[in-house]
Every structure is written in structure tokens, then in C-alpha cells.
Write a sequence for this structure.
């Protein structure tokens, strides 16, 4: 069975015994979209360089069985150093033993989706599926139709999540190829704030496909720190669609770190639905072997006085490939928009490839926007300077690459996470 | 210490050094002067090992080793130091970490244990006092946002930290104000020992008032066309280079 056949069969099993209601209707609608559009192919402009064939033809199993114990999971990389709220999922299902909440503020809800649907039905139904685009987005439709469990976060008006929430998704591909479709719903009400870390890891030698959808709603005057750390080693395929819908006067800092993964596609979409939105999008990818990493982003400046700053930096080794596609859309209404976008790449081998496409589409007339992309090797001048002081070529290269990556690391406001990143950089270089 | 014989070098097929002969013995100070574009920086770059240049002929022996065979880092570890005419800014690399790495890589090469962190900091503090360096400069990224003069002073400070055998200074005096020139010269004079040699590239006599050279050479069109003692620099200050150029043209 290929992926679509599998999803269809899973969906008919699910539909046969599903309870009617808002949730089921959304999934039914999503399934119809999936049947209509199917999965994206290279003919789709947004998927021109990103081939889903191996995934579409993959024979993955959508079950959460795993024999791993807590200790093994921790060793696999749960980032225990960070003091935080934790939700851990293995092959898409909650692993309660490692899930633990430090915040106990009344009104704040941290939960898995399965629980939240029962205990907080009205909030869940009001937001679920409201922000994510299904039309023409086969993978979003597929996630919505046949989603696994995920995180549910609700921060009520004026409240602050004191500790970050770390959502860890672990693939256990020890016994069979794994399909998991994590689905997270994050609601930050007016003047509230939260920090969320997504952490992806994998164990086992079989392949896996992780298809994530994040729906994030940030209401007026609220703020969000959002980090994504991709460290799932092995034959892992990973698609992530993060939709952030922000109302006026909101501040969002988003950092995407892609270190491991055979095939990774990050889709990040900010929609500014109010004035004075402030959106920061930063990313770092370090690829080696025959890794493939695609960062697709889109920022919709739909209202005036918005500010967005995007900077993605890559370091490519071996035969790896990176794609960057960033689109800034400044709508007719969005006067006084300031939008900046840069993609920089350092290529350390002759066999690595970068396809980069920064895009600006501007319909307002009073805006300040810049964009640009660079692809090159390490500068020779600093390299020679360091070597002329007795520093070996290797060490000099490391120092310069660290300095280059630091530019993104300093956007991370959790010191332990910065430290973890530095160790990962050391490992990858 | 350094013996250069008939050194010829080119870049992109264009010949820049056309047969340099120069011998520097331990403890000597040599000054190289010459008009813009003569090849002074090229000579210093070739000695430091910049890969852009192709050595087409000649030899350079440093401390008994074939200098041209060594990598830039090994040249530095053997004791050669180039204070750059245009030091590069390296954002994100801390000055302190850079110096510590440089010192310890050299120590490793020489078979010594790395310097302990506290010993290193003490040593750095001492050298900063000796060179009258502003503390704020070493707490920043390497040369980032430094003024022209600050960059030059930082070169001399690095020289003090790395304790080389041969110091090549490429126009370290250019861009320095009068006080900074005095400080840099005093710093260099503190570094002078009977073993340590200097090759000072400059356009101006005023530096040589402080650092008195044993020999002065004039480089023109990739050759040393005249050598003399300290008085040659004074003569050039008065007469310029035309008379030398004419002598060279006449000889052709
Ligand atoms: N990368 C290069 N490509 C082409 N020509 C070069 C290159 N680098 C240097 N040259 C040429 O080599 C010649 C010597 O340059 P060099 O920098 O050594 O001169 P210099 O004596 O140090 O001059 P100045 O006193 O102005 O510093 C010049 O004509 C210069 O244009
Ligand atoms: Mg020069």
C-alpha cells in the first residue's frame, strides 16, 4: 500500500465509528480535499525542488506501538537540561511517564489534544482547523484527516506561561517504518505570553514520515517565543506546516534549527491580521551526507505598520541540498510595512546544492522592504588572517562557522538551548 | 634568520616580485620603503603564505627551514608574524578566544602543554598593560568596528602576545595619530631583543625616528633597487623617489 491508499483505508476505518460533530466534520472536509488534490508533486511551483515521491510510495505503519522505556527515550535526546513543561509523544501517541507540567496557574491549559477534546471541547472546537489552509495543501489535509495526538495549549487573557513548554516527538522505527502526524493547537489570548519548543528525534533503523501541523493563534498584545529543533537522525522524512495567525500588537520570535533528518520540509506561514505586528523568523540549517532541507516561509502583511525580519542561514557539507523559498506579501492595506528578508548559505563542498528564492510581492505603496540571498564559500580573508596567527585551517574554519551561526544562536532566549545548539554545531562540523 | 634569494612572484599571471634578495639576521631591524604599488605588501603576503600569489622562482629560508614549503599556520608557529596593512574584521570571533587558540596551537606545535585559562588571562593582562591597550578592545569581536588606528594597535598587541621571532610590519604607522604612533613605537621597542628581528614597511621617516633601522631598502617594481643605513630613509624623505627611479631606468 502506498501512503495515500493507507490513509484512505485508515480514514474509512475511523469514519465508520467516529462520533458526529465539529471535529468529525473538519476531518471529513479535509479528507475530501486530500482526495481532490492528492499529494503535491514537482509540477506544483511550491514543490519544484522538493520531491515527495519516496514518501508517497513509502509503506509506513500508523500505530503507536513502541517498546522503548523512559530511560532510552531520555538518552535519545529529550533535552532534560531545560527546566520546562513537557509533552512527549512516541510514534504520535502520548508517553505520560515523561510528560510533566510545572505551570499550575489556574486557567492555563497544557494538555494533549485527545484529552483537550474531551475536557475543553468548546475552546477546542472554536479553534481547531480554523487557521490552517487545506485547499491545495495535500499534506495539511492529510494531517487533519488522520492526525495523531499532539499538544493543546491555551493561555488565557493576561496570563504568562512561566516555563517553556517542550513538545517532543519521537519516532521509534525499531520494528517497522513509522508514520506519525503530530497536530498541535496553541491559543494565546490577548496580552498573554508563552514559549514553546518543538523537539524532534528518532531512533531505530527503519524509515519514518512525520507530518506535523501547528495551528497557532496569537491574540492582541500577546507574545510568543517559538523554537523548532530538528534532530531526528536516520532515514527520517519530515514535513512541518506551522500556521501563525496573529492579531494586532503581537510579538513573535520564531527560530527553526534543522540539524538532522534525511528529508526535511519546513513551511512557516505568518498572517498579520492586525496593526503593529512584529514577527521575527530566524533559521539555521547545517546539512551533511545527502540530507535534503527545504525552508519555505510566507509572511502576509495584511494590515498597516507591521514589521517582519527574516534571516535564514545555512552551512552545507558533502552532497547535501538546501532549498529556501521566502515570500513576503504586502497587501494593499499594509501601509508603513517594514519587511526584511535574507538567506545566506556557506557551501563547504563542491557537491552541495542550494536553491534559493527570496520573493517580495508588494501591493501597498508606502513600505520599506529588502530581500536578498547569498551563496558562497567561507571568506578567504578572515581565514588567512586566523591561519597567519598560527591557527590551523580546520580550527579557523570552525571558528568562522561558529561565528556565522552565532548570529542565529543569539536569537534564542533560552540559554540551555543555545548551549545545546553550540554542542550540535560542534558535532556537525 | 631569514634569507630570501631571487624571489619572484606573480598574481593572475602578472609578475609583481621580480627577484628579491634580502637577508635578515637575528636582532636586526630592516626597513622597506618604496612607492605605492612597488610590491611591498606582496612581499609580506608571500612571506606569510597567502595563497593568491604564485611563487615562480627563488627561495626563502627561515630559521633553517624552507619557508615557502610551510603552511601559513606553520610559518606563524615557527615564529613569523605579519602585522597586516589592512587587518580584517571578524565579527563573532572573540578577541580573547582567538588569542588563546592561537597561543595554544603554537604551543602544541612546539610540543608544549596548553596554557591554563588563568595563566593565559594573567599573561594577556600583563601584555595589555605593557602595550597600553584599552581593555574594551579585547572584550569585543576581533577588529569589529575598530577604528583604523585601533586595528593597527591591535596588530602590535597580538604581536606582543604571540612573541614571534620575526615581525613583519606592513605600514603599521599609516593611519595612526601622533600619540598612537608614539605608543605603537614604544610597544615595538619593548619587544626588541637581541634575538628578535623586524621587517618594517613604511612610507614615513617619522616611524623610523622611533624605531631606528639597521638597514633601509628601497623596493621598486618588485626589486630592491637600493639599500643603505638609517640615513637613506632621511635622504628619501627630502628627495622623494624620482632620483632612484631615474637611476633604475638609466641602468636598463
Ligand atoms: N589581487 C591582485 N590582482 C592584480 N594585481 C594585484 C593584486 N594584488 C596586488 N596587485 C598589484 O601588485 C602590485 C603591488 O601591490 P602591493 O600591494 O604589493 O604594493 P605596495 O608596495 O604594498 O603598495 P602600497 O604602498 O600602496 O601599499 C600593484 O600594482 C597591485 O595593483
Ligand atoms: Mg602595501
Amino acid at each position: 500500500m502506498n501512503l495515500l491508499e493507507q490513509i484512505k483505508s485508515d480514514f474509512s476505518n475511523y469514519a465508520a465509528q467516529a462520533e458526529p460533530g465539529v471535529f468529525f466534520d473538519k476531518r471529513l472536509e479535509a479528507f475530501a480535499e486530500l482526495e481532490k488534490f492528492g499529494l503535491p508533486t514537482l509540477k506544483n511551483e511550491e514543490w519544484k525542488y522538493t520531491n515527495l515521491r519516496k514518501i508517497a510510495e513509502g509503506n509506513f505503519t500508523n500505530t503507536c506501538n513502541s517498546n522503548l522505556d523512559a530511560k532510552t527515550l531520555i538518552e535519545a535526546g529529550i533535552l532534560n537540561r531545560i527546566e520546562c513543561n513537557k509533552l512527549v509523544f512516541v510514534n504520535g501517541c502520548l508517553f505520560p511517564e515523561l510528560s510533566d507540567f510545572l505551570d499550575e496557574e489556574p486557567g492555563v491549559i497544557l494538555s494533549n489534544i485527545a484529552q483537550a477534546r474531551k475536557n475543553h471541547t468548546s475552546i477546542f472546537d472554536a479553534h481547531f482547523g480554523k487557521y490552517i489552509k487545506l485547499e491545495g495543501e495535500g499534506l495539511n489535509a492529510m494531517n487533519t484527516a488522520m492526525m495523531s495526538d499532539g499538544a493543546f495549549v491555551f493561555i488565557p487573557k493576561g496570563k504568562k506561561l512561566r516555563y517553556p513548554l517542550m513538545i517532543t516527538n519521537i519516532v521509534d522505527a525499531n520494528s517497522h517504518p513509522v508514520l506519525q502526524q503530530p497536530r498541535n493547537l496553541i491559543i494565546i489570548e490577548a496580552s498573554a505570553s508563552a514559549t514553546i519548543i518543538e523537539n524532534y528525534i528518532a531512533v531505530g533503523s527503519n524509515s519514518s514520515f512525520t507530518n506535523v501541523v501547528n495551528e497557532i493563534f496569537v491574540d492582541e498584545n500577546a507574545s510568543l517565543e517559538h523554537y523548532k529543533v530538528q534532530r531526528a537522525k536516520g532515514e527520517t522524512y519530515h514535513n512541518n506546516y506551522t500556521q501563525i495567525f496573529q492579531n494586532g500588537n503581537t510579538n513573535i520570535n520564531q527560530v527553526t534549527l534543522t540539524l538532522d533528518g534525511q528529508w526535511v520540509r519546513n513551511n512557516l506561514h505568518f498572517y498579520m491580521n492586525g496593526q503593529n505586528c512584529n514577527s521575527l523568523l530566524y533559521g539555521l540549517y547545517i546539512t551533511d551526507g545527502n540530507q535534503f532541507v527545504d525552508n519555505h516561509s510566507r509572511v502576509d502583511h495584511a494590515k498597516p505598520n507591521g514589521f517582519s525580519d527574516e534571516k535564514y542561514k545555512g552551512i552545507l557539507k558533502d552532497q547535501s541540498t538546501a532549498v529556501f523559498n521566502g515570500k513576503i506579501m504586502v497587501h494593499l492595506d499594509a501601509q508603513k510595512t517594514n519587511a526584511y528578508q535574507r538567506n545566506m548559505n556557506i557551501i563547504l563542498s563542491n557537491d552541495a546544492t542550494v536553491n534559493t528564492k527570496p520573493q517580495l510581492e508588494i501591493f501597498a505603496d508606502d513600505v520599506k522592504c529588502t530581500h536578498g540571498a547569498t551563496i558562497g564559500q567561507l571568506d578567504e580573508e578572515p581565514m588567512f588572517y586566523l591561519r597567519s596567527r598560527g591557527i590551523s585551517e580546520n580550527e579557523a574554519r570552525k571558528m568562522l562557522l561558529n561565528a556565522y551561526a552565532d548570529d542565529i544562536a543569539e536569537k534564542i532566549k533560552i540559554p540551555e538551548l543555545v548551549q545545546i545548539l553550540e554542542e550540535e554545531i560542534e558535532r556537525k562540523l | 634568520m631569514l634569507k630570501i634569494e631571487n624571489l619572484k612572484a606573480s598574481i593572475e599571471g602578472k609578475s609583481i616580485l621580480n627577484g628579491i634578495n634580502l637577508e635578515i639576521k637575528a636582532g636586526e631591524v630592516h626597513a622597506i620603503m618604496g612607492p605605492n604599488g612597488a610590491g611591498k605588501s606582496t612581499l609580506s603576503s608571500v612571506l606569510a603564505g597567502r595563497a593568491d600569489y604564485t611563487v615562480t622562482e627563488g627561495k626563502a629560508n627561515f630559521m633553517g627551514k624552507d619557508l615557502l614549503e610551510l603552511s601559513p599556520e606553520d610559518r606563524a608557529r615557527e615564529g613569523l608574524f605579519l602585522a597586516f596593512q589592512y587587518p580584517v574584521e571578524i565579527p563573532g570571533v572573540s578577541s580573547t578566544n582567538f588569542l588563546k587558540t592561537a597561543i595554544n596551537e603554537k604551543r602544541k606545535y612546539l610540543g608544549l602543554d596548553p596554557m591554563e585559562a588563568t595563566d593565559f588571562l594573567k599573561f594577556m593582562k600583563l601584555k595589555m598593560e605593557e602595550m597600553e591597550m584599552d581593555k574594551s578592545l579585547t572584550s569585543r569581536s576581533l577588529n569589529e568596528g575598530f577604528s583604523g588606528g585601533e586595528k593597527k594597535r591591535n596588530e602590535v598587541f597580538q604581536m606582543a602576545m604571540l612573541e614571534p621571532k620575526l615581525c613583519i610590519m606592513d605600514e603599521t604607522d599609516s593611519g595612526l595619530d601622533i600619540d598612537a604612533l608614539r605608543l605603537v613605537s614604544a610597544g615595538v621597542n619593548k619587544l626588541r631583543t637581541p634575538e628578535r628581528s623586524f621587517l618594517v614597511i613604511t612610507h614615513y621617516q617619522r616611524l623610523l625616528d622611533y624605531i631606528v633601522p639597521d638597514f633601509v631598502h628601497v623596493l621598486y617594481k618588485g626589486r630592491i633597487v637600493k639599500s643603505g643605513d638609517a640615513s637613506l630613509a632621511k635622504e628619501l624623505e627630502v628627495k622623494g623617489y624620482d632620483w632612484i627611479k631615474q637611476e633604475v631606468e638609466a641602468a636598463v
